[in-house]
Design brief:
Layout: H1 9-17, H2 24-48, E1 52-57, E2 63-66, H3 68-74, H4 78-82, H5 92-106, E3 113-121, E4 127-139, E5 142-151, H6 153-171, E6 175-179, E7 185-188, H7 190-195, H8 216-227, E8 232-239, E9 245-256, E10 262-271, H9 273-316, H10 320-356, H11 361-370
Length: 378
């Protein structure tokens, strides 16, 4: 204050060096300490983050500062990193891109932000795939580039696995359908589109599941069962694009998240028309086999009756040829006996087929081999 007497030289000296009661140094020191503590906390936070952070001189491309994670990625100390240009640690495929961005930053273009996928190459040659976000900033009269690199190894692995699963769904010959919990189609693979006569699976998105069944009530039954967390397998009649019916088998379940909450419905649809026709043919063949077995039994009796008459007359004839007649009659009787055995075995096979269906086919093959044509040559 002008009204106050001026300080003597000793008092003024004490204020300047911080010894006086109203020292300038004492006035600003607490605030300075607070700011330094805040900077230390911020620095510790940056060092704890898993992302690697690089501060780059835009003009020279050299590193001005890095956090602790950067050294971990590159197997280098902070001192070693600050003695190198940032471009040294970028994979060769992306070096030219970073050079161009640095050049444009030196031209003092407005602050911009850019993200790319690259690899950081450590001193030992170990590559780490990262997503790098780059931004130009200005501190005072100097321009810098801030690069934040995030390890995406797990993400890339998950994406590869997802692509494999997507490829499996796309290439499956079975129809695969994903719907919401109400039965509205979210995804249909090419196999499903082909089975139901559509050009592309995308054409089916948003449609109701029920339109693909000859009886729409079946579609509602499927979604109702699945919403109650029941896995289902149903054989029913489907409807192709254009209205033609065909036999299908539908199996499905509800997809749940880690917490057990339902997310969507997944169905697998197979065209079983050919199998149904084969089953029908088997039933008809089995029925025909039964008729043939009955005919074999009747024919055996019809042959034996006249054969007995021939044998009776031959035994009454006193002639050398009678013995030949009796010998041939015995051979005929043996053949009829073999036919009888075949009839019994055929009846057993028929019953076995009825009980065991397709599982009996190897046994039937053995039976056919046993009674081949050579058995009837005589």
């Amino acid at each position: 204050m002008h009204s106050e007497p001026p300080d003597d030289p000793d008092t003024l000296r004490e204020k300047i060096i911080g010894l006086g009661e109203t020292s300038l140094h004492k006035s600003y020191y607490p605030e300075l300490q607070s700011r330094l503590a805040e900077l230390e906390r911020f620095r510790a936070l940056l060092d704890q983050t898993h992302d690697a952070i690089f501060l780059i001189h835009a003009e020279t491309g050299r590193l001005a500062d890095v956090n602790a994670s950067a050294g971990m990625y590159l197997d280098c100390s902070k001192k070693e990193l600050l003695a190198t240009p940032f471009i040294k640690w970028i994979s060769p495929q992306k070096k030219a891109v970073f050079d161009e961005f640095a050049r444009r930053s030196c031209e003092q273009l407005p602050a911009s932000r850019w993200t790319c996928i690259a690899s950081l190459v450590s001193r030992e040659g170990r590559e780490t795939p990262v997503e790098i976000t780059v931004r130009s900033v200005t501190f005072g009269d100097k321009q810098y580039i801030v690069a934040i690199a995030r390890d995406i190894t797990d993400r890339l692995q998950a994406e590869r696995e997802l692509k494999i699963k997507e490829s499996a769904l796309e290439s499956s010959t079975n129809g695969i359908l994903i719907t919401d919990l109400a039965g509205t189609i979210m995804y249909a693979n090419p196999g499903f589109a082909s089975i139901f006569g559509y050009e592309r699976g995308e054409m089916l998105a948003g449609r109701s599941l029920e339109i693909f069944f000859a009886n729409p009530a079946i579609g509602k039954k499927v979604t109702d069962l699945l919403r109650k967390n029941h896995a289902i397998t149903e054989e029913t009649i489907g409807v192709r694009n254009g209205g033609s019916p065909f036999h299908i088998q539908v199996s499905g379940s509800v997809v749940q998240n880690d917490a057990g909450q339902p997310l969507c419905i997944m169905l697998i649809v197979m065209d079983i028309t050919e199998r149904i026709l084969i089953d029908q043919l088997k039933r008809e063949t089995c029925a025909q086999l039964g008729k043939n077995i009955e005919q074999f039994a009747i024919l055996g009796d019809h042959i034996r009756n006249p054969l007995q008459v021939i044998v009776g007359y031959a035994e009454m004839i006193d002639d050398p040829l009678a013995k030949m007649i009796l010998d041939q009659s015995d051979r005929i009787d043996e053949i009829i006996t073999q036919l009888d055995r075949g009839w019994v075995e055929s009846a057993n096979v028929r019953q076995f087929l009825r009980r065991h269906g397709d599982d009996a086919e190897p046994r039937v093959e053995t039976f056919i081999q046993r009674f081949s044509i050579k058995d009837w040559d005589s």
